[in-house]
Design brief:
Layout: H1 5-16, H2 25-30, H3 32-44, E1 51-54, E2 59-61, E3 64-66, E4 71-74, H4 76-79, H5 124-139, E5 142-146, E6 154-155, E7 161-162, E8 168-172
Antiparallel strand pairs: 1-4, 2-3, 5-8, 6-7
The structure holds protoporphyrin IX containing FE.
Protoporphyrin IX containing FE binds near residues 51, 121 and 122.
Length: about 180
């Protein structure tokens, strides 16, 4: 949000439009820019970039023979950066998830920060609620700004984190 103040402003507008009451389902549903931004952040910097598995039997995949017992890894982080499914995948572009484009529908597993299949995250909706509740609480009174001109360099594994700490300033909003 510090790097993309235009999107931060959209979420602040959503937060300001919330009724002065505890955040309920309708309030959460109204935070649509927050939804788009969260989806895009999870695509670009997935907290779980690799999903390890072990082959339970011999199989062949794209010409490679995989023996039973071999460690393999699904890599949603790689698929979510593939130009086969995403327009300009390097670009932060939350609108790609909007109703007009729906790039996440280009393939069943194109957008898979929460995994897929039998073990798909059971906490995905809860996680989304938590992020929105946090954003609503924070952005009601503060805005986030970069504390440095240098671009933030992210380590992607084992989990994403900015390499030099989190160089941001929380500035009290002028209401
Ligand atoms: C942004 C936040 C989160 C991300 C990115 C995330 C990601 C994932 C991923 C990728 C998996 C699949 C792992 C696999 O296939 O081996 C998973 C599974 C799981 N997640 Fe999450 N998760 C998040 C939040 C949560 C929360 C808040 C909860 C609980 C309240 C939760 C509970 C679980 C559980 C129990 C599983 C295992 C499901 C199973 O094996 O059947 N997750 N999560």
């Amino acid at each position: 949000l510090a790097t993309h103040p235009d999107w931060q402003d959209k979420i602040i507008a959503e937060v300001d439009a919330l009724p002065d009451a505890p955040l309920d389902d309708a309030g959460l549903a109204s935070m649509q820019s927050a939804d788009l931004v969260l989806k895009e952040a999870l695509r670009l910097l997935p907290p779980v970039p690799l999903i390890p598995r072990r082959a339970v039997r011999d199989f062949e995949w794209q010409g490679h023979i995989i023996s039973a017992g071999t460690w393999v890894s699904a890599s949603p982080g790689t698929v979510m950066m593939s130009p086969e499914y995403w327009t300009e995948p390097e670009k932060f572009d939350p609108d790609r998830f909007g109703p007009d484009r729906q790039e996440d529908r280009s393939h069943k597993y194109a957008w898979a920060p929460f995994g897929g299949g039998a073990h798909k995250c059971i906490g995905l909706h809860f996680a989304t609620m938590q992020v929105k509740i946090f954003l609503a609480a924070l952005l009601k009174s503060h805005q986030i700004e970069l504390a440095t001109e240098a671009p933030i360099d992210w380590a992607r594994v084992p989990i994403p984190q900015p390499k030099g700490g989190l160089p941001v300033v929380l500035r009290k909003r002028v209401q």
